[in-house]
Amino acid sequence: MAPQPLLAAVEVRRQFGALAALDGVDLAIGPGEAVGIVGPNGAGKTTLLNVLAGTIAPSSGTVAFRGTDITRAAASRRARLGIGRAHQVPRPFGGMTVFENCFVSASTGGGLRRRAAYERCLEVLTLCDLDDVADRRADTLGLLGRKRLELARALATNPVLLLLDEIGAGLTDAEAEALVVMINELHSAGIAIIWIEHIVHVLVQVVSRLICMDAGRVIADGEPRAVMSDARVVDAYLGTAAA
Amino acid sequence: MTWVNDVIQGILLGGYYGIIACGLALMFGVMRIINLAHGDIAVLGAYLIYLLLEHWNVSPLIGLLPVLPVMLLLGYLLQRLVLQRSLRSGLLTPLLATFGLSIVIQNVLEQTFSPDVRSLGQDTGSLVTAAWKINSEISISALSTLIFGAAVLIFAGVQLFLSRTNAGRRMRATAEDPDTAELVGIDSRSVYAWATAVAVAIATVGGLALALRSSFFPYSGPDQLIFAFEAVVIGGLGSSLWGALLGGIVLGVAQTIGAQINPEYSILAGHIVFLVVLISPRGGLLTLRSARGARRALPTVTT
User: Fold this and answer.
1) pLDDT tens, B114-172?
2) Chain B partners of A20 at a C-beta cutoff of 8 Å?
3) Which one of A132, A226, B127, B153 is separated from B283 by 20 to 30 angstroms, measured CA to CA?
4) Between A79, A100, A107, which is nearest B183 by CB?
């Protein structure tokens, strides 16, 4: 791996009452690397993404981005530094137009001036196939439109690292296929990606490295095929065959 | 013909209610904070203008200019130092914090300025007495017209700010979903602080309007808060900013018509309209969807 990882999480713990949602997670992502995260429900995948994005603070441990410690940095600062985030359930600013959703993101998170922000928005809206609904209010979009907007808005911040949380969930095969093409495009443009997804066959079309989490810990990390056949991963999904 | 005059006077009075309702609606719309000290802040602004008049003989309308940035700063600090902390612990804490603030402001004003009732109306020259006489029954006062004009300007200004500027878009995004706003790079605390600053500055204009058209003393705040609150609710809580001005106008017209029936019914008529709107199933005039359903609750830590 490169001498300095793009993002490095060390010994990250997050306690919710007595439950350790994250129980000492170490994770290092190289520049431009695409990593998938799988694991059963409640494994702590979304919590990990929230800690990386800054929505919640870790109980202990550190997060560094491009060599700078950002453990205490607000989510807004991380967005400006280049960490973009898309939710599993899209959360558009419903009262604003699709274009405004992206514009506010490009001009704030992306730090772009008016003209540059405008062009950036056109670019991501075209990429995400939203250019013909740009002037519609975001809350009039259907699920697929909202998912695209969620991605477009994250892209508008001009991220170097994109955190995707099950954005494929609820899509048809054809829609998921289109999503894969889009994300592959982003990946080849040099954006590092951390993608949580249950649908592994979709995931492996993009990522070259797979991480499996269970009970707040990383239990396997490596080449996708090897991870999926790992005995601990099979156990986590299917339960231990014999006690 | 007296009815025509009542309606005209009511509309103009509604301009004043609109001004004090504007800041209240803004803070509620952006942060879900009901600022119980809003009326007292308006009165505090009036006292600062009075201070300038008393010591340096600055005319109230001119005095507003230096007081506005002071109040803007005060609002900014109020959010940063007091309300932001209270927001962490749910809906009730900010309500109690502003309630406490209201009492503090009233007592500080009484200590500093004595409980005497004051008015700034006589210090603005002919503005208070000037009027256009349309006929024997309709007469339009210059001061009321000025206040109404100020109200329209304030509402149009805030509306333009929210819809056309980038800072306004950031404010709308934060109002809808502060956590997600953070994820696109918006510093929600800073947005909150500026929203409060603007609300407090607008309240100051309301305080000046109060001081010019009638009188004020350290405990005038709660009454103004009630009128502002009624205007916001009649206009449709949190649905549209213009609703607050419309609500203020309805309140003003109800009061002047009530006063025409019997001077004692003036305030009561306003309260009755407010109660009717409150219990009506549709809610306020401009409420298209229920305020509860349309907006997310206060920012909470997502798990």
Assistant:
1) 899 998 888 777 777 788 887 878 888 889 999 999 999 999 999 999 999 999 999 99
2) none
3) B153
4) A79
C-alpha B207/C-alpha B25 separation (Å) is: 16
CA pair distance A122, A228, nearest whole angstrom? 39
* B2-128+140-294 belongs to CATH 1.10.3470: yes
Q: Determine how β-strand A192-196 pairs with β-strand A161-165.
A: parallel
- Each residue's pLDDT expressed in tens, for chain A with a length of 243 residues: 456 889 999 999 999 988 889 999 999 999 999 999 998 888 999 999 999 999 999 999 999 999 899 999 999 999 999 999 999 889 999 999 999 999 999 999 988 898 999 999 999 999 888 989 999 999 999 888 999 999 999 999 999 999 999 888 888 888 888 888 889 999 999 999 999 988 888 888 899 999 999 989 999 899 888 888 888 888 887 776 544
Tell me the C-alpha distance between B197 and B31, whole Å. 13
> Chain A residues contacting B, CB < 8 Å?
16, 21, 47, 50, 53-56, 74-77, 79-80, 84-85, 87, 91, 93-96, 100-101, 103-105, 107-111, 114, 153-154, 156-157
The verdict on residue A15 lying in a domain is yes
Distance CA B185, CA A77 (A): 6
Residues in chain A: 243
- CATH number at A147 reads 3.40.50.300
CA distance B298 to B176: 10
Rounded to 5 degrees, φ, ψ at B82 are: -115, -60
Calpha distance B20→B252 (Å, rounded): 13
Quick check: is A156 in a domain?
yes
Cβ partners under 8 Å of residue A61, min gap 6: A9, A10, A11, A12, A13, A22, A24, A25, A71
Q: How far is CA A17 from the centre of its chain?
A: 26
Which residue range is the domain that position A196 belongs to? 7-238
Domains of chain B by residue range:
2-128+140-294
CA-derived radius of gyration, chain B: 19
Alpha carbon distance B29, B198 (integer Å): 13
Element (H, E) at A36: strand A34-38
Task: Count the Cβ atoms, other than its own, within 10 Å of residue B1.
Answer: 10
| ipTM for the assembly | 0.87
**Beta bridge mates, B191:** none
* Helices marked H in A62-172: 75-81, 98-108, 114-127, 143-156
pLDDT at A240: 62
Burial class (CB in 10 A: 0-12, 13-18, 19+), A85: buried
- Longest CA span, chain A: 63
CB contact under 8 A, A75 and B172: no
Cβ-based contacts of A107 with chain B (< 8 Å): 166
| A-chain residues near B187 (CB < 8 A) | 74, 76-77
- The answer to whether residues A10 and A62 touch, using CB atoms and an 8 Å cutoff, is yes
The number of domains in chain A is 1
